Amino acid sequence: LFDVFKKKKAVNFEEVDSVDRAKEECKKGNLERMHMMSPIFGGSEEDFNILYVPIGINRIKEGYDNILADLVAQGKTATFKCTPEYKGKSVVPSRITITSGKDGKEVFKQTIEVW
User: Fold this and answer.
1) Across the chain, what does the average pLDDT equal?
2) Which end of the chain is more exposed for a tag (fewer CB within 10 A), N or C?
3) Buried residues in 13-42 as b, exposed as e (16+ CB within 10 A)
4) DSSP category for residue 9
């Protein structure tokens, strides 16, 4: 009856050491799926393109994807790279770096500090 008053258990991201565990945390509302390569750039729903991140991180990444889409439309960038970094055995990235460039020159770089 009083379950609504129970606090959500905080997730220790270091303990999320498998994709199955990450998917469980998604169902609980503690993590969300994020595309490394956004569907707006042709990114797929395949597991290799999906990261599991804390709620809110995906919105930050989508903002950067929109900036990149504008740069692509203007012809200012042509390449894209999303590089996750991890701590310990966790499958939840601790940091995500997004870079983009053209003709061998980096024109965009942002790092999202996840945890």
Assistant:
1) 93
2) N
3) beebeeeebbbebeeeebbbebbbbbeeee
4) P
Render 18-57 in DSSP notation, one character per residue. Answer: SHHHHHHHHHHTSEEEEESS-GGGT--SSGGGEEEEETTH
Residues 18, 109: Cα–Cα separation, whole Å: 28
- Alpha-carbon span 77 to 69, nearest angstrom: 9
Predicted TM-score (pTM) of this structure: 0.87
Here the tokens at position 77 are: 């960038």
Q: Are 98 and 110 in contact (CB under 8 A)?
A: yes
* pLDDT tens per residue, range 26-73: 999 999 999 999 999 999 999 999 999 999 999 999 999 999 999 999
Q: Which phi and psi angles does 9 have, rounded to 5°?
A: -75, 125
